[in-house]
Amino acid sequence: MPGLSDLTRRDVLARVAALIGALEAPVRVGIDGPDAAGKTMLADELAVVLAAAGRHVERLSADDFLRAPEHRHRRGRESPEGYYEDSFDHQRLRDAVLGSGSPLLVDGIFLQRPELDDLWTLRIFVSIGENEVLRRGIQRDGAEMERLYRVRYLPGQRLYADRVAPRDRADVVVENDDPDSPGLIVRRGEPGPAA
User: Fold this and answer.
1) Would you tell me the crossing angle of helices 9-21 and 39-52 to the nearest 10 degrees?
2) How many CB atoms lie within 10 A of CB 114?
3) Which of 9, 50, 57, 84 could pair with 156 in a Cys bridge, judged by C-beta atoms 3.0 to 4.6 Å apart?
4) Which domains, and CATH codes, for the chain?
C-alpha cells in the first residue's frame, strides 16, 4: 500500500488526475468520504485539472439524489440508521451514472455501499477525522447543526465504516485533514515513490 506524504495539493491533484486519465472506459470515479471531508471540492478540482489536460469529464453529486424529507426522516430526524439507509435514492443515482456516456466524477457519502459499489472503476476515499468533520460541518452548516452531526451524521458514518470499511476498500485515499498538504495512499494504478 504505497503512501505519499509531504505533498502539496497540486501534487495530489496531478497524481490522482493521472490515475483517472489512465483508466479505460467506462471511466466512473466515485469520490466517497464523510460529511465535510472535501469530496465536492476535490471532484471539482480534478475536473479542472483533467480538462486542462484535454480530458473532459462530467460531474455528478449524490446530494442531487436525496430523497424527500418525509422519506429521509421516517425513522426520526436524528436517526443514524435513517441517515445511512434512507437518505439517497440509490436507483436514480445508479441510472444517472449508467446513463452517462462520458467519463464521470461522482462525489458523495456512502458511495461504496452494496447498492452502488459495482458502478465505480476507481474508488477514492477522502478521509478526515471525526473532530475535523464536526469543526467543518459546524463552520459550513452553522452551530445549530452541531447536535445533528453528533447524533445523526457521525454515527451514520460509523455505521457505514463498520459495514463497508470504505477507507480500507478504496483504490485511493486522500487524507484531507489539512487540505493544503493532503496525504495520499494509492492502492491501484501508478503509485509513484513510497514515502
Assistant:
1) 70
2) 9
3) 84
4) 3-186 (3.40.50.300)
Nearest to 122 by CA among 146, 103, 147: 103
- The residue behind cell 440508521 is 81
Q: Is the dihedral of CA 178, 157, 118, 74 positive or negative?
A: negative
What is the pLDDT averaged over residues 28-45?
A: 98
| Crossing angle for the helix pair 130-141 and 154-164, to the nearest 10 degrees | 140
Query: Which pLDDT tens digit goes with each residue over 120-129?
Result: 999 999 999 9
Q: Is 8 exposed, middle or buried (0-12, 13-18, 19+ CB in 10 A)?
A: exposed
Q: H helices within the chain, ranges in order? A: 9-21, 39-52, 69-72, 80-86, 90-99, 130-141, 146-148, 154-164, 166-169
Question: Quick one: average pLDDT of 30-53?
Answer: 97
